[in-house]
Specification:
Strand 2 and strand 3 form a beta hairpin. This protein has a single domain, classed as Serine Threonine Protein Phosphatase 5, Tetratricopeptide repeat, CATH 1.25.40.390. It is mainly alpha-helical and 464 residues long. The chain has 19 helices and 6 strands. Helix 1 crosses helix 7, helix 2 packs parallel to helix 8 and helix 15 packs antiparallel against helix 16. The longest helix is centred in the first third of the chain and has 26 residues.
Length: 464
């Protein structure tokens, strides 16, 4: 089985990273998994699936452009040229010395490749009755992982969806086959989201309600992802329906009153609130920018957490070596940010959907289920609102606090900037020069790596 994994990994690296990967043909000597157990083992490779160490479906660029961290002058100067250009939101990302930008593209597409191998293999197997459940889990997991990964890629490399732009030609190359010689062609934005929704919906009937391990997909996770995707698409009725389906299966919240703030990292890994585990990839970009030893939390962000908000002390601490305010609230119990799916996010999707549909009290009711577990016992005052706008503002303020460093902020900025009452301008000042990311800027869509374009003549670069 190890031989299988290693050979597939090699093939995927060639597919995603080498300049001439589209001209490469599949090597008939490669060992391909042919049994249900082998295909499940392929999808259980946490390095490729949840992002542990090698990177997977999650993308460091979704952290790097947000307002959740800052670099000091020294940290900025010590970063790579690529990381500095990302930090400045440069129209052209500098990749001199190493094609670091390719990792945020290659690693997710490796996950897509694994999913396609599993889908191709599982459809060739007629399972005996005793193995039907395992067969379903492989196919459902592969569909979920492909849809999940396409969604992550779309948040980095496609323009934000909005009314009137779904015919945009700047969608993803939707690789739906394990044939590495197949050409990569960009789809429309509408086709990209249709494929994401199709994969996730198809996975529901195949997956178990709860996974054996939280590193595996489940029906609950599929409902959660559909809620997230429909929120991104501003389909609030659908987002609410799928959030409710998810919460019916996974309503558990951590009570932050019971969490000991003394440990360096106070939260337990794979805790009861987690629906699907996810790890921010350990890419060079992440190592230089989104690290508790390098980046710092802006004081103005910390000030948004009231004194009786338990997240204030559980999420943040002062770094004794440099005095910077650091984030320590990862659900991975480490310095690596958690970027999977958890119950708290789904409650916030539910609350926001109610608010946007004008259902003020249901919005506050959903929000208060969460907040009761986040504020010091005896000091919590339920949130209330008298208007749709007040309800929405209240929910979004708590969303900013609750989902800090979860990998959702970039998508939130992209979608909220479409509302004239919600726009946010981001600024960063380095060596006396201020850089601005304006609402609705084309810089909210990262460029496709040069190596990918070189290997695909005719593929359009994102306008920046």
């Amino acid at each position: 089985m190890k031989k299988t994994i290693y050979l597939l990994l090699l093939a995927t690296i060639l597919l995603a990273c080498k300049k001439d990967f589209l001209s490469a043909k599949t090597d008939d000597s490669l060992v391909i998994p042919t049994t249900i157990a082998e295909l499940q083992a392929l999808l259980d490779n946490d390095n490729a699936i949840t992002g542990l160490n090698e990177g997977g479906p999650n993308i460091s660029l979704l952290f790097a452009g947000t307002d959740e961290f800052i670099l000091t002058e020294t940290q900025f100067q010590n970063a790579t040229e690529y990381a500095r250009s990302v930090y400045q939101w440069s129209p052209v990302l500098k990749t001199a010395g190493a094609n670091l930008s390719n990792l945020d593209w290659a690693s997710p597409y490796r996950t897509v490749y694994y999913a396609n191998i599993a889908l191709q293999g599982i459809d060739k197997i007629a399972p005996p009755d005793a193995e039907t459940q395992q067969w379903n889990n492989v196919k459902g997991s592969a569909l979920f992982l492909r849809g999940y990964t396409f969604y992550q890629l779309s948040q980095a490399f496609c323009p934000p969806p909005q009314q009137g732009n779904m015919d945009s030609p700047y969608g993803l190359p939707l690789r739906l086959s394990a044939d590495i010689s197949a050409a990569s062609v960009r789809s429309s934005l509408g086709e990209t989201y249709s494929q994401i929704l199709s994969d996730l919906k198809a996975s529901i009937r195949l997956l178990p309600e709860k996974p054996v391990y939280k590193t595996r997909p489940s029906r609950t996770a599929a409902y959660a992802m559909l809620a997230r995707v429909y929120q991104t698409l501003s389909n609030h009725s659908a987002a609410l329906a799928y959030a409710d389906s998810c919460l019916a299966l996974s309503p558990v919240l951590l009570d932050f009153n019971t969490i000991d703030p003394a440990p360096t990292y106070p939260f337990t890994a794979l805790n009861d609130e987690i629906i699907f585990n996810g790890v921010m990839p350990s890419s060079p970009l992440a190592q230089y920018m989104i690290s508790t030893t390098r980046s710092a939390i802006p004081q103005e962000n910390f000030a948004r957490f009231p004194a009786n908000d338990l997240r204030r002390k559980l999420y943040f601490s002062n770094n004794s070596s440099n005095g910077n305010l650091q984030f320590r609230g990862s659900y991975l119990k480490s310095s690596i940010p958690f970027c999977g799916i958890a119950t708290d996010e789904i409650l916030l999707i539910k609350a926001e959907a109610h608010a946007r549909l004008g259902q003020i009290q249901p919005a506050m009711d959903a929000l208060n289920i969460l907040l009761k577990k986040r504020y010091s016992m005896g000091t919590f005052v339920p949130a209330s609102a008298t208007s749709m706008q007040q309800a929405l503002t209240t929910v979004l303020d708590e969303r900013f606090r609750e989902l800090y460093m979860r990998g959702t902020r970039w998508t939130d900025l992209r979608r909220l900037n479409q509302d004239s009452q919600m726009t946010i301008s981001l600024t960063r000042t380095i060596t006396g020069e201020t850089y601005t990311l304006s609402p609705g800027s084309s810089l909210y869509t990262w460029p496709i790596p040069d190596a990918v374009l070189s290997a695909n003549p005719g593929m359009a670069q994102n306008p920046r």
